[in-house]
Each structure stands twice: as C-alpha cells, then as structure tokens.
Amino acid sequence: MKIVFLGPPGAGKGTQAEKIISRLGIPQISTGEILRRAIREKTPTGLEAQSYIEKGALVPDDVVVRIVRDRIAEPDCKNGYLLDGFPRTLPQAEALASFESIDVVVNLEVPASLLIHRLSGRRVCAQCGYTTHVDRGEAKCPKCGAELTQRKDDAPESVQNRLDVYEKQTKPLIDFYAEKGLLKNVDGSKPLAEVTEAILAALGSN
Ligand code: AP5
To answer: Which of these, 96, 101, 30, lies nearest to 69 by C-alpha position?
Structure first.
C-alpha cells in the first residue's frame, strides 16, 4: 500500500508512522528525517536545507521531490511505503502524481493549541532519533540512554512560522486529495494507541 500522512507540524505523523510501518511491513519515508540527516552529515543537500529548516520555512520543492523520487525507486519500496511529511505543497503533490499512484492519504486533525503544546514539549534523542514529550518525564533516552534534546525548529518563533506555512502551503492539499477520493480524516488529538487504531481502521488494516 502506498500511503501519504498529511497533517500540521506536531500532529503525530512521525510517531504514528513508526507504529503503522511495523504493522504493515513497509518503509517510512520522512523527508524531515532525511533532511536532518543530510544536515548532520554536512552533505550539499544538507547545507542547502539547513537555513530553511531552522527558521521553519519549507525546503525548495525541486530538492524534496528529487529526494523522494530517488528513495521510492529503491527495492524496499516495491510493495509500498508511507510518506511522512511529503508532499506539503501543491507543486510537490502534482510532481508525485506524475510518477506515482498513491492509494490513500491519512489526514491527522489536531487543534492548534494542542500542536503548540506538543511541539514545545517534544524531545528527541540525538543518538537514535527516539521521540518523546516532557509530559512523559523521561530524563534520558529509554532506548539507548543518550541525552534528550530539543529540535532547533521547535523553538517558539520557528513553531509559529511552521504553523503559518502549514496553513498557507500544505492545508490546500486536503481539498486536492479529497477531490481525488483518497482522503481519510483521523482525529489525532486522542491518546496514541487510539490514534493508531483509528489509522489502521482508515487503511482497512485493523
Ligand atoms: P518534519 O520533520 O516533517 O516536521 P513537521 O511536519 O513539522 O512534523 P513534526 O516532525 O514536527 O511533527 P509530527 O507530526 O511528526 O509529530 P510527532 O510525531 O513528532 O519537517 C521538518 C522541516 O523539514 C520542515 O519544517 C521543512 O523545513 C523541511 N521539510 C520536510 N519535508 C519537507 C517537504 N516535503 N517540503 C519542504 N520542506 C520539507 O509528535 C509531536 C509531539 O507530540 C511528540 O512529542 C510526540 O511524542 C507527541 N505526540 C504525538 N502524538 C501524540 C498523541 N496522540 N498524544 C500525545 N502526544 C502525542
């Protein structure tokens, strides 16, 4: 199955993607993760992307379209994949439609006040990428014991910019995919396990 996860920053796309890929046995393709790795490794793509990401702006369409096109051509994607964070502009969605046929688009709906709480309290393990929230009271990464840190783009000024960018550039994709009959809305404000079950039901995989 070829799945797209749509939703504002902090909706839980990354968190839920991990659960869904382990149930369905398909790879997760997170453009945010691919770009953050490129920044850590100081590749030419990473150097180009860094300033956009840190201020909460979108990386240019041609850069992310190339990344996704190359990634889905790899052998592990032949039985499907889950796109997390792509597409997020109409030109990206149109580019994707020109080379792939998506089966379903899951749109995680979460009110803005909850998004700000989730993003401002999010902590990630610098070593293994584990994602948590200060509400869970974890002092160190429970998986590998490394320090938990805050993403630079979770600073308050970047968060507001990311939410504005979402409203202007990504939200129109809801209508784009609804018109194609591919959209499934899921309430992402519920507890984690409930959201996972609702997504699996929307995918017809529960
Ligand atoms: P990206 O990494 O894709 O960030 P994002 O879309 O802003 O999404 P987030 O990772 O912030 O949120 P999420 O929905 O995955 O939430 P999470 O599961 O972590 O992109 C980062 C940047 O890269 C972009 O700003 C842009 O610059 C660039 N980029 C990436 N893709 C691009 C593209 N296609 N085009 C151009 N530029 C691109 O959850 C958030 C928090 O909430 C966590 O603490 C989690 O533990 C908690 N939480 C989640 N679900 C629940 C729940 N149900 N109950 C309680 N807590 C929960």
So the answer is: 96
